[in-house]
Specification:
Layout lengths: L4 H8 L5 H4 L3 H4 L8 H15 L13 E2 L11 H15 L9 H11 L3 E2 L6 E2 L15 H18 L2 H15 L24 E3 H18 L2 H17 L1 E3 L2 E7 L4 E5 L1 H18 L2 H18 L4 H4 L2 H15 L5 H17 L1 E2 L4 E2 L15 E2 H17 L2
Antiparallel strand pairs: 1-10, 2-3, 4-6, 5-6, 6-7, 8-9
Length: 392
């Protein structure tokens, strides 16, 4: 079984736990249907590059969607660009053929820096390209958290310390989002966006920032990262956890709660707890990770819930289930991912182009009139490549 760079790091941190970490014979043999995942990852990435990549002459940027819509900017927002970068890192980790994508991966991270704006002591990756390529945008802390996580993936894949340094800079950016007003309902939590108009603390940024901090501690052993990871994780657990594995979307500064549930909020908390367990040896984190994985799967597998979630949220969710699987194997994790991936391949893909189309939400049934977007196409690359790497 070939492991992703990220999962391999998790495993290497605990050589004394072989009984929990060594793959079962069933996993070593691969899940049913695991064979086609690599080819599907290649097919999906090829379609991404053919239809959405704008070429080196356009700084390695992507367009938001194809066909191009009148409302679209000339290039994609930061979030789709980050997901294209994450997808390319996953392609570079494919067993046997990943080397052909390493140059592409390096280019993605050069391009990501075009979104960075050093502005007046409050730097960050803007939601859209700053001048001269664009009009700039806000600093969303969830966007910056996932950029940092992808920089860590590239660092683990290459050993190039410049990626680790950039990931540490994103930690400094997202740390500004912590709300330290003791008078608010359930004090703490991370702001969604760097703006005086922000009026909520969100599960997505708090969980993703906690995961970034936990992984930075894993790489550097610096106590400030561990302290932040634990603090941010506990806020989500205490203030937004609805039930095992399910985290409400956000808490308003007025005390109102947005109870919408998303798969990536489940995933970020599973991944953070698994990483904190490796960092501390505290089995409370492992128990929590397992409880959240089991609880979230029980919920999301009901009816159309998983299928209707945005594909990119599911990509993040499954990535974190694979991290937990590396330290606490449960075939249910990869079985759920492979079933979802198989259905989307059959039902949401246009065989003539290799492009995936969803509802306007980014998930759900195939819509032939919908644009194919960099965000969802990249999500499917990540899912197929993750299955190919984790099951081969």
């Amino acid at each position: 079984m070939k492991l992703s760079a990220r999962t391999a790091v998790v495993l290497a941190a605990a050589p004394l736990l072989c009984a929990a970490l060594c793959p079962s014979p069933a996993l070593a043999a691969g899940l049913p249907g695991a064979g086609p995942w690599k080819d599907r990852a290649v097919n999906t990435y090829t379609a991404l590059q053919r239809h959405l990549y704008q070429g080196k002459e356009n700084h390695g940027l992507y367009q938001e969607a194809t066909p191009h819509r009148d409302t679209d900017n000339a290039h994609s927002y930061l979030w789709p660009m980050r997901e294209a970068a994450a997808a390319t890192v996953d392609m570079a980790g494919l067993p046997g053929s990943g080397g052909r994508y390493t140059a592409d991966a390096a280019e993605r991270f050069t391009t990501l820096e075009l979104y960075f704006e050093p502005r007046d002591g409050r730097p960050g990756y803007d939601s859209y390209l700053p001048a001269p390529l664009g009009q700039g945008g806000d600093v969303f802390y969830d966007d910056n958290s996932v950029v940092g996580l992808t920089l860590l993936d590239q660092y683990q894949a290459t050993g190039d310390a410049s990626y680790l340094h950039r990931a540490e800079l994103t930690f400094d950016i997202v740390s500004r989002g912590w709300d330290d007003d003791p008078a608010e309902e359930c004090p703490g939590g991370m702001h969604w966006v760097d703006s005086p108009a922000n009026n909520m603390r969100a599960a997505n940024v708090t969980g993703l920032a906690a995961e970034l901090a936990a992984r930075l501690h894993q790489e550097t052993h610096e106590s400030r990262y561990l302290t932040s990871a634990q603090r941010w994780y506990e806020w989500n657990w205490s203030c937004l956890r609805q039930s095992p594995g399910l985290y409400r979307n956000s808490l308003g500064d007025d005390g109102s709660v947005n109870s919408t549930l998303w798969t990536y909020n489940s995933g970020a908390m599973v991944g953070t707890a698994a990483t904190l367990y490796k960092a501390t040896g505290d089995r409370t984190y492992l128990r929590r990770a397992v409880q959240d994985a089991e609880g979230s799967l029980a919920y999301w597998k009901q009816g159309e819930r998983l299928h209707d979630q945005p594909a990119i949220f599911n990509a993040i969710y499954f990535d974190n289930l694979r991290v937990l699987d590396g330290i606490h194997h449960d075939p249910a994790y990869l079985r759920a991912e492979s079933a979802y991936a198989e259905r989307v391949w059959k039902e949401n893909r246009d065989p003539s182009t290799g492009l995936f189309r969803f509802q306007p939400s980014g998930g759900g049934d195939y819509d032939p009139d919908a644009s194919a977007e960099t965000l969802e196409q990249s999500a499917m690359v990540q899912i197929f490549a993750g299955l190919a790497t984790g099951s081969s």
